[in-house]
Structures are given as C-alpha cells and as structure tokens.
Amino acid sequence: MLLLSVLAKKKEKEVPVWLMRQAGRYLPEYRKLRKENKGFLDLVFSPKKATEITLQPIKRFDFDAAILFSDILVIPLALGQQVSFEQGLELSPIDVENIRVHAKEISHKLAPIAQTVQKTRKELAKDKALIGFAGGPFTVALYMLQGTSKKGFDEALSFAYTQTKAFEKLLDDLTEATTYYLLDQIKAGVNAVQLFETWAALVPWHKQKEWLLKPLQTMIHAVRKDYPDFPVITYLKGVGGFVPYYAAHSQTTAVSLDSSYPLELLDDIECVIQGNLDPHILLNGGTFMKESVFSIKKALKGRPFIFNLGHGILKETPLEHVEQLMKLLRD
Ligand code: CP3
C-alpha cells in the first residue's frame, strides 16, 4: 500500500493522494443514495450502504485511500446525546456532569460502523488503504455544547471559560470514549486513522498543550499500547504556529496541514506531511490549480508526503476538476 509505505517514511516515486470529505455531497452517486434514504445517520449505521459510499470515490477517481463513511459526531451519539442532520445540524442539550463512559456501551452502539470497516476492507483493493477517523476532543466538545453548527461556537466557548472544570471533564470523557472507538475501528481492519481537530484555532495559545496536545497524545499513546507503530494522521486547522511543537511531542505519524501552512518552512517538522491544496482552488480548477499543485510538489520534493486538501472538498466542486487534479498528480 503506497499510503502506508509513505507513512512508514519509505522512499516512493509516486505521491499517494486522497481528499478529505471525498465520500459525500459533491458526488452525484452519493446525493442519489442520500435522497433515496431516510437520513444521513441511517446511511452511517447501515454497513451495506456505508460501505458502498466509502467505495464510491475510489471507483470514480482511483484514490490511494478510502476514508470510512461516518461522522465525528457519532461519539456524542454513543454518549447518549441526540444528533440530527436533517434540518441542519442539531444536538440535544447535554448535562456534562452526568456523562459516564463505558467501553462496552460505546462498542455496542457503534458496532455497525465496525461492521462497515470489516466489509469495506474485504471489498477494497489490496493496494488501497482504509482510513478510519474520529474527531479531536476539543472540536467534538464544541459541537456538543453549542448544539448546532449555524451560529459559531459562542455558547460552547462561554462554557469553557466559565465552567472550565466541567469543560475539562468533558474533554477527558471524550478522550476516553474516542479511544475505545478508534481501537474498535483498528480491530475491525482500518490501516490508519486520522484525528480531525478542525476547530483547533479557537483554543487560546496558553491552553493548546492542555486542550489540544494532551487529549490527542493520550489517544495516540493508548492506540500504540495495543498496536505499536500504528499510523496516526492529525489534522489541526488554523494553528500553524503550534504544529511543529505538536509534531515533536504527540508521536503522531503525520500532520495534515491546512492551506495556509507555508510548505517551504517545514525544517522544524520531522513527521510525514499531508496536505494542503485549498479546496477553493480545486473548486475552480484550471491553470491556477495546475500551478498550485506544482508549488506543493516542489516544496515537498524528497520528503514523505501525502497529497490532500487543506480542508474538506466543497460540495459544489465539479467532478472534472477532481479528474484534472488526478491527472496532474499521476502523469
Ligand atoms: O468523506 C469523508 O471524509 C468521510 C466521512 C466524513 C463525514 N464527516 C461525512 C459527512 C468525515 C471524515 C467527516 C468529518 C467531520 N464531520 C468533521 C471534520 C472534518 C471537517 O471537514 O472539518 C466535522 C467538523 C464534522 C461535523 C459535521 N458533519 C458537520 C458540521 C456536518 C454538516 C452539517 C450540516 O449542517 O449539513 C456534517 C454532516 C456530514 N458528514 C455530511 C457528510 C457526507 C453531509 C451530510 C448530508 O449528506 O447531509
């Protein structure tokens, strides 16, 4: 598997490529399945349909890795919070003090997702990697406390700054629950995992070690206790100044960089790099994309590197632009 080889820092001529959010709404075959079914979560909890959706982008574009079709918000769901995606994202109010984490309960509630992993791994070509994932505790905590994705995270942040003890208990609970979930995905057969800390930029600098590094590092250590050397990719968005410290102290295998990260200034990062084409550049395709891909490849020449976007693919992205991108990378 090219992706695993690069994650193990082996020299490869080719650059592996996959795209964050590659299984989703920009694909007509996804939109069709979505329309024919009751809801997003019904797709996530149907191993048959989730496997089909996971494989859709591989069939169409021949990416080097498939990412499990699921969501970071299945953890709040497993902890007893109601989560709905149908009229925009909505989560029911939650009493943080009353959350109790039980490994068996998490595994039981999320068992269909582990089945999707098993089924997908069986159907996926042997040379393609299957990536599992989970949200970073800070990012998931924000959604749990805010209850929606429409109006920013003002209320969630107020909670963090006025009920800090309870907020930190929530981070601990999420760290534990997410660890069980990651271990279940690995047991079921994923070849690597990615941790999505999408809202890392909302953490003030003097709390980055405690609210970002510590929970992520705890999960990585727990995974490695059972699966030494298991590849972990961490996506941290908007915290370029913190990434080198994170890379040096977390034991992450790779960091997934957002599009603002200057790839010419990577000398202080030793781990594998993933990234970082701006999704808006892919949305528009053409000459600008060609030049951008060239710049990224030039800056990373000679380093173990996985091509990806700096954030998830936008749902309006024309399929032809993804084809153009693949041609640029493969020819
Ligand atoms: O293709 C893949 O990457 C695999 C599946 C995946 C989804 N979500 C499916 C999905 C992954 C890896 C995610 C991660 C995720 N989910 C993140 C982190 C990555 C990032 O892009 O920042 C976050 C913050 C979420 C939370 C989430 N899920 C939001 C805010 C939304 C949109 C809610 C809305 O208002 O519509 C989702 C829904 C979601 N997750 C969809 C998909 C395909 C769209 C659901 C639909 O079909 O309506």
Describe what this molecule looks like in 3D:
The chain has 15 helices and nine strands. The protein is of the alpha/beta class. It is globular. The structure holds coproporphyrinogen III.
Oligomeric nature of the chains: single chain
How are the strands of the biggest sheet laid out side by side? 1-4-5-6-7-8-9
Helix content: 40-55%
Largest sheet: 7 strands, parallel
> Overall 3D geometry?
globular
> Span between N and C termini?
19 Å
Q: Which ligands appear in the coordinates?
A: coproporphyrinogen III
β-strand amount: 5-15%
Query: Rg to the nearest angstrom?
Result: 19 Å
* Total helical elements: 15
* Low-confidence blocks of residues: none
Mean of pLDDT: 97
Q: What is the H/E string?
A: HHHHEHEEHHEHHHEHEHEEHHEH
Strand runs, count: 9
Structural class, judged by helices and strands? alpha/beta
Name a few traits of the molecule.
331 residues; alpha/beta; 7-stranded parallel sheet; 9 strands; 49% helix; globular
Short description:
The chain has 331 residues and is of the alpha/beta class. It is 49% helix and 12% strand.
Helix/strand layout:
Layout: H1 2-7, H2 28-36, H3 40-44, H4 47-61, E1 65-67, H5 74-78, E2 83-84, E3 90-91, H6 103-109, H7 111-123, E4 129-135, H8 137-146, H9 154-162, H10 164-188, E5 192-197, H11 208-226, E6 232-236, H12 243-249, E7 254-256, E8 272-277, H13 279-284, H14 286-299, E9 305-309, H15 319-330
Parallel strand pairs: 1-4, 4-5, 5-6, 6-7, 7-8, 8-9
Antiparallel strand pairs: 2-3
Helix pairs in contact: 4-7, 7-10, 8-9, 8-10, 9-10, 10-11, 14-15
The structure holds coproporphyrinogen III.
Coproporphyrinogen III binds next to loops.
